[in-house]
Amino acid sequence: AILAAQRRGEDVETSKKWAAGQNKQHSITKNTAKLDRETEELHHDRVTLEVGKVIQQGRQSKGLTQKDLATKINEKPQVIADYESGRAIPNNQVLGKIERAIDVRSRSACVLRAQ
């Protein structure tokens, strides 16, 4: 119908769809870039060093290595290392498994700190 109207000389209004036929569904916005940089306004909370020390002391009192504790709670050894060093983003399920494995309440200390 559009081609027929153009052949007759009638005015036909057309508009191009944005990114039609291209794979541009996901664009990076300024907010995404800001979150990636973890500025002061947008950041992820981390486990405090106090909690990390409590986990480390409890693990050592049981005579467990990081690998042993990780195996016991079905997590990777890097997860335990991240919690003990304060680099981990807190996960209540993981913290609960660690607490049960070493019989220590690590969350009673201040759990979160803004970095």
UniProtKB/TrEMBL annotation:
<dbReference type="GO" id="GO:0003677">
    <property type="term" value="F:DNA binding"/>
</dbReference>
<dbReference type="Pfam" id="PF08523">
    <property type="entry name" value="MBF1"/>
</dbReference>
<protein>
    <recommendedName>
        <fullName>Endothelial differentiation-related factor 1</fullName>
    </recommendedName>
</protein>
<dbReference type="GO" id="GO:0005634">
    <property type="term" value="C:nucleus"/>
</dbReference>
<dbReference type="InterPro" id="IPR001387">
    <property type="entry name" value="Cro/C1-type_HTH"/>
</dbReference>
<feature type="compositionally biased region" description="Basic and acidic residues">
    <location>
        <begin position="33"/>
        <end position="43"/>
    </location>
</feature>
<dbReference type="Pfam" id="PF01381">
    <property type="entry name" value="HTH_3"/>
</dbReference>
<keyword id="KW-0804">Transcription</keyword>
<feature type="compositionally biased region" description="Polar residues">
    <location>
        <begin position="22"/>
        <end position="32"/>
    </location>
</feature>
<keyword id="KW-0238">DNA-binding</keyword>
<feature type="compositionally biased region" description="Basic and acidic residues">
    <location>
        <begin position="7"/>
        <end position="16"/>
    </location>
</feature>
<keyword id="KW-0805">Transcription regulation</keyword>
<feature type="region of interest" description="Disordered">
    <location>
        <begin position="1"/>
        <end position="43"/>
    </location>
</feature>
<dbReference type="InterPro" id="IPR010982">
    <property type="entry name" value="Lambda_DNA-bd_dom_sf"/>
</dbReference>
<dbReference type="InterPro" id="IPR013729">
    <property type="entry name" value="MBF1_N"/>
</dbReference>
<feature type="domain" description="HTH cro/C1-type">
    <location>
        <begin position="55"/>
        <end position="110"/>
    </location>
</feature>
